[in-house]
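Write out this protein's structure.
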Amino acid sequence: MAATSQKLEITVISAENLQLDRKPIKKNASATVRAENDSQFLTTDMDTEGGAYPKWNEKLVLDLPMQARSLTVEVQCKTSYGVRTIGTAKIPVSDFVGGFVPEGYLHFLSYRLRDRRGERNGIVNISVRMKVPELKACATTSSHSSMGFPVGDSSFGVGGVATGIPVWCGAYPRNY
């Protein structure tokens, strides 16, 4: 059975320079995270003291559908008129999935927030990590389970196992 989603661990760290009607907000900011076209969303607690520079440092675990191409982070502020959206950032999944980084790599990212008119309105700082399923360890009785070969002379207190990964460069010496 193929998996339809992956677990995404996203920590909403903080935001900077948040404004509402061109004035810095005073308090009561929160952030909401959701996957592209998904009704599931997670929200941080409200920062009641940070003003235009709120800090949440809150870890949220979201199910990210395999076909999702982006995440949305939305920062809101509670006012006397209700909850108002300060700004939204659309984050491409390709910014933290694939490429040359190992699975489970922790990415620290910052994105520009845009208000409902598309104008710049602050920055949101997050960290993102794809949760890697834990592998079950298997017991081996063979002493040759590690890759490498002995190195050094143990009589001098130096020794160990050298390991390496072959790398092909594509540049070979020319034969003249």
